Amino acid sequence: MRFLSESTGMRIPCYSVLDGNGEIIVGSDYEQLSEEIAVKMYTSMVTLQMMDTIFYEAQRQGRISFYMTSTGEEAISIAAAAALTADDIILPQYREPGILLWRGFTIEEFASQCFGNKDDCGKGRQMPNHYGSKKLNFVTISSPIATQLPQAVGVAYSLKMDKKDACVVTYTGDGGTSEGDFHAALNFAAVTEAPVVFICRNNGWAISTNISEQFRSDGIVVRGRAYGIRSIRVDGNDALAVYSAIHTAREMAISEQMPVLVEALSYRVGHHSTSDDSTKYRSVDEIEYWKKVRDPVNRFRKWVERNGWWSEEEESELRSSMKKQLLQAIQVAEKTEKPPLKELFSDVYDVPPPNLREQEKQLRETIIRYPQDYPSDVPL
Amino acid sequence: MATIFQGLRGGAAAALTNSIDSKKLLSRSTRRSLSERKVSFPVVRSDGSVNLNPGGSNARARRVDQLITNAVATKADSSAASSTSKPGHELLLFEALREGLEEEMDRDPHVCVMGEDVGHYGGSYKVTRGLAVKYGDLRVLDTPIAENSFTGMGIGAAMTGLRPIVEGMNMGFLLLAFNQISNNCGMLHYTSGGQFTIPVVIRGPGGVGRQLGAEHSQRLESYFQSIPGIQMVACSTPYNAKGLMKAAIRSENPVILFEHVLLYNLKERIPDEEYICNLEEAEMVRPGEHVTILTYSRMRYHVMQAAKTLVNKGYDPEVIDIRSLKPFDLHMIGNSVKKTHRVLIVEECMRTGGIGASLTAAITENFHDYLDAPIVCLSSQDVPTPYAGTLEEWTVVQPAQIVTAVEQLCQ
């Protein structure tokens, strides 16, 4: 009689390509990147980093109500997006706006969603940062954790029925893996042989819950085998490694029609959101270390510069023009009208039913009677 | 909500939309009698006669005759009425559900089914029997036991173009799927700014059965009724089961179709021709003058049984099967209240927060002036359903209680 030990003793090794100085580790295998893609990846990561800083400040100034940064995790979303095609459908958690940025969502569109104005394609209905774009195959973010995971299996099921040359990519954090939906989604994906790539952003923290309090297993990668799913652990702060791993995972998912689990190790440099102050539960030194020494954007920049594809001038040019664009976008979005009143009642159903039409009528009557209590930037 | 009517002239469908105009309903200066009402049932009735364009009292009288014939779908009635020369075919309610499902799966390759044991086992109540063999394992998908997850899966599939029907083995288990149903199914069309639609149908048996215990005897319609963005319907006869199943599948909104464990073996003769029932309409079971009795699902049969006793005692109850639990068909209900001025609601939900509670509020709010007496609502008690048969029988409203309530209401 032999019990399997609760741990294998050795931790599962982590796939990495670039070292801390942005030099290729000798002997590593990876997907070669063209200059064009590499530069686009780098500029997108810088843009994302700057957008996070400036929009976070805007919330602190009271201009938007809420914001969540992806600081420290830029490589996970952008390098992955670069390795996918436009047909691959994304079901995000909420820390992946990098994918939208890569696919062409404009700064102005991000700002419109955060301000909930009439240019928001979500019609001002969701919290800031809860982006969605059917055009860019990015499903609208829903706040409850891990609900997107079984939905991703359903989307993959739909792709399988249509035999499309595309896969589904869905994200969750380390905390999200504790949800029941994580278990069932992985189980379902394995049983139905669905072409889904599950990416877990293991960034060490779920608001104030450290991973040592979240699970006792060796991270998330070991769980894949429990479901019969092929898995890999990758350095989430290494853009080249993430690119290569996702590129390969996608091929496996589509050609072999099976799910793949990717655990991307990283660190959540920012607070959970603007409603959180992480210095309350972790040391400032720890945050500073990861921010300065282990920054994924700097690491990738060193590699790009060493290839002669980027320079100091281009850096300052990018940063100053991007700052202008971001500040301008916020100013414009702030002044833009909100969606009209009828959008409060539309899209609940395909056509507003009698009770909603009645409720809209009552609301309009109230507004006519008390116009001074009604906001001026919401057209009737 | 727009509902598709196959095989009907456009005019009838347009008239239908007009008939649910609540503005006309509320204005007292234009009290419309039933005979002036526009078409609501431009469908083939189950006795085979076609009712395409009724516009006057003649048509109403005709409809009255047809309806009384089909007041109660019991075995005795249909065997007495059936003969080899009658059109249509006889089947049981679960077969009617399957027929509707099969027709829709033939019609649209995007329609698929997912749930526990729906594939080769054929479904716990045989609703999906034979479908996996015909359409393959991919279109009739057996899922592992995780309601929240296969409901979530159905929602994901619906967002990308499929039209899934999610079966809960028992409605009570769908409480585990509440997160997906409320937060995603009901909300995603709205929060995505209309970009993603969720044309999913969630169905399963609920209600109090024969000694199934508390967890298998739940009435989930009361828990789901607040969720914005979903529609709820309850079927009660083979005819409306098939019609509602088809309408639900074709609807662009998420629809929850409530079936009842004890009604699956009801037999009725239904038309051979294709038909659909309107999701937002109630069904006039028995027109009358003295009191309006509103009910749905299994309680319809208890009400009709009580109706026989009441008729013998000289009362003339009007029985309406509300069918559409969200939204209520306040048009038909309102017209009935305006005629009889007395309302009795008979439901299987528990007293607190049930469908009857909402219906009472809606009627009081809209038709207060037409009521001659307070609305009476007969519901189950606020207790978990006991296993013991005698106790279980008394948590459900019985015909004797309905008769007593009507007698008191009509004093």
UniProtKB/TrEMBL annotation, chain A:
Provide any one GO MF term from the record: branched-chain 2-oxo acid dehydrogenase activity
Among its keywords, does the record have Mitochondrion?
yes
Q: What is its main location?
A: mitochondrion
One cellular-component annotation, GO: mitochondrial matrix
A GO BP entry is: branched-chain amino acid catabolic process
Q: Which domain of life is it from?
A: Eukaryota
What's its EC? Answer: 1.2.4.4
The Dehydrogenase E1 component domain covers 43-340
Cofactor(s), by name: thiamine diphosphate
Q: Does the keyword Hydrolase apply?
A: no
Reaction catalysed by this chain?
Answer: N(6)-[(R)-lipoyl]-L-lysyl-[protein] + 3-methyl-2-oxobutanoate + H(+) = N(6)-[(R)-S(8)-2-methylpropanoyldihydrolipoyl]-L-lysyl-[protein] + CO2
Q: SUPFAM superfamilies given for it?
A: Thiamin diphosphate-binding fold (THDP-binding) (SSF52518)
What UniProt keywords apply to this chain's record, in alphabetical order?
A: Metal-binding, Mitochondrion, Oxidoreductase, Potassium, Transit peptide
**Cellular localisation:** Mitochondrion matrix
Q: What quaternary arrangement does the UniProt entry report?
A: Heterotetramer of alpha and beta chains.
The text of the family note is:
Belongs to the BCKDHA family.
Q: Name the chain's protein.
A: 3-methyl-2-oxobutanoate dehydrogenase (2-methylpropanoyl-transferring)
UniProtKB/TrEMBL annotation, chain B:
- Fetch the SUPFAM superfamilies from UniProt: Thiamin diphosphate-binding fold (THDP-binding), TK C-terminal domain-like
A GO MF term: metal ion binding
**Where does this protein reside within or beyond the cell?**
Plastid, Chloroplast
Q: Which UniProt keywords apply?
A: Chloroplast, Metal-binding, Oxidoreductase, Plastid, Potassium, Pyruvate, Thiamine pyrophosphate, Transit peptide
**This enzyme's EC code(s):** 1.2.4.1
Q: Which GO terms describe its cellular component?
A: chloroplast
**In this protein, which residues make up the domain named Transketolase-like pyrimidine-binding?**
91-266
Q: InterPro entries, alphabetically?
A: THDP-binding (IPR029061), Transketo_C/PFOR_II (IPR009014), Transketolase-like_Pyr-bd (IPR005475), Transketolase_C (IPR033248)
Principal localization reads plastid
UniProt cofactor(s) = thiamine diphosphate
Gene3D superfamilies from the UniProt entry? 3.40.50.920, 3.40.50.970
Q: Which Pfam families match?
A: Transket_pyr, Transketolase_C
| SMART domains with a match to the protein in the record | Transket_pyr (SM00861)
EC primary class: oxidoreductase
Q: Which PANTHER family match?
A: PYRUVATE DEHYDROGENASE E1 COMPONENT BETA SUBUNIT, PYRUVATE DEHYDROGENASE E1 COMPONENT SUBUNIT BETA
Subunit structure, briefly? Tetramer of 2 alpha and 2 beta subunits.
Q: What is the documented function of this protein? A: The pyruvate dehydrogenase complex catalyzes the overall conversion of pyruvate to acetyl-CoA and CO(2). It contains multiple copies of three enzymatic components: pyruvate dehydrogenase (E1), dihydrolipoamide acetyltransferase (E2) and lipoamide dehydrogenase (E3).
Q: What is this protein called?
A: pyruvate dehydrogenase (acetyl-transferring)
Organism expressing this protein natively: Salix koriyanagi
